[in-house]
Amino acid sequence: MPFTFHTHSGQFCRHASGNLEDVVKQAVARKMLVLGLSEHVPRSRAQDLYPEEEGMTPTDLHTTFADYVAEARRLRAKYAGQIEIVIGAETEYITCASLAETKRLREQYGLDYIVGSLHHIDEMPLDFSQPLYADIVERFGGDRAAMFRRYFEQQYELLRALQPEVVGHFDLVRIFHPYDAGVADPLCASDEVRRLALRNIEYAIGYGAVFEINSRAWKKGLRDAYPQRDMLREILERGGRVTISDDSHGPDDVCMHYGRLLGYLREMGIDRLHYLSRGGDGDDDGDKDGARRARPCVLDNATEHEFWQANGIA
Hints:
- With about 325 residues, the protein is an alpha/beta fold.
- Helices cover about 40% and strands about 15% of the residues.
- The strands form four sheets. Strands 1-3-4-5-8-9-10 form a seven-stranded parallel β-sheet. It has a two-stranded parallel sheet with strand order 2-11. Strands 6-7 form a two-stranded antiparallel ribbon.
- It comes from Coemansia erecta.
């Protein structure tokens, strides 16, 4: 599809690769309509740094984020005639202080939008590696339903506090679930887990969120994009708005698995997508009161868009 709202680069994220400008160039080459930039908000506690960030400090992360916003604004101006760029950030909810800090950062930098993603459960990294995921399972005494419940409880807190425009990888908690071992999926086996997930869906729909259909799940070996088809169906049946994202971690990931994504959209009967746009406003400073600048727009007949043919996708 001609957009993505979930992207990273090695220039500003240690587990990604390449420069941010190369991500933009690749999006232009792919004939994207809108590109959302969404580097991670900085973490402010030393204990929350990842092994890949050895030698860095929280101050370094804040400096890196400021550099990211400055570079994103430069690129928006440079490529204005070729692609619309909206500038956002992806959340890091580790403690309640993380949510308050994200609000401050949004106002400080006048960000166009927020991708609301949960990467931790009770301050423990969820998606960094399979061993760290296993540590969370152990923390809950092997009770995967309890772990999933906690994920959706904290996701609800994030949604309520920030009301992000884009809900990132809604069911990321499934990332390292051992499906091949025949272990029951709590979202299917636990009525309570399902109730919490549906509550979150309904809340996000209520304030106008857009749910991303995130193709990176296929890189992790999952059957479907995030959200998996059961949760995506619940979103659609309730009238939820959806977009698509590649969750790219460098220029080589731009439009990653979008051919497979087209098939998923058709299988799920999706032909209307939403995307964020600033509506042609050229002011780079953001609203002075931190109000949202990017707003959802509709793209009908999405699976027939010329983008697919231009990229050799049938």
